[in-house]
């Protein structure tokens, strides 16, 4: 990867990586640190990463850096845990985005990550599996369970609107 390709990568993907991390950890400063670490790792490995694979490399590296930071802060949920007692949303409606953000906060980290990668960033199941080091079937299960939990938390759309 050349310096020009690296700079293009920063311009094209830094906002997307930042949004993805911020949606997961809800801490602006930590999200910025993770994005900076991710691009530093890309710079160090620029000779090994082809320009065509840079997006996947960035999201994978950011995801793993985020998980390391969460583990360091001892806030990680076990990967195979499924929280069935997520509850339902009983607050006052103030915006669909806020309701969705609150619902996403209730999910275990792995479910939130795969749902964000699939529904917010548009990755395919196999790409999510590669990013998260899960099997494709595990990714599908986590997305399914996460969506069920979101549906249970939010209730019907008519009740919100």
What does this protein structure show overall?
It is a single chain. This protein has eight helices and no strands. The chain has 161 residues and is mainly alpha-helical.
Q: In which range does the helix fraction lie?
A: over 70%
CATH class descriptor of the largest domain:
Mainly Alpha
Beta-strand residue fraction: under 5%
**Which regions are unreliable across 5 or more consecutive residues at pLDDT < 50?**
75-82
Order of helices and strands: HHHHHHHH
Q: Name the CATH superfamily classification of the largest domain.
A: Winged helix-like DNA-binding domain superfamily/Winged helix DNA-binding domain
The geometry reads as: globular
Q: How many distinct folded domains?
A: 2
According to DSSP, the number of beta strands is 0
Gap between N and C termini, in Å?
48 Å
Tally of helical runs: 8
Give the rounded overall mean pLDDT: 80
CATH architecture verdict of the largest domain: Orthogonal Bundle
Could you say which structural class the secondary elements and strand pairing correspond to?
Answer: mainly alpha
Largest sheet: none
Q: Over all CA atoms, what is the radius of gyration?
A: 17 Å
- CATH topology descriptor of the largest domain: Arc Repressor Mutant, subunit A
Secondary structure layout plus pairing:
Layout: H1 3-25, H2 28-44, H3 54-72, H4 96-106, H5 109-120, H6 125-132, H7 136-154, H8 157-160
Key phrases:
161 residues; mainly alpha; Rna Polymerase Sigma Factor, Chain: A; Arc Repressor Mutant, subunit A; 2 domains; 0% strand
Summarize the structure.
This protein has 161 residues and is mainly alpha-helical. Helices cover 70% and strands 0% of the residues.
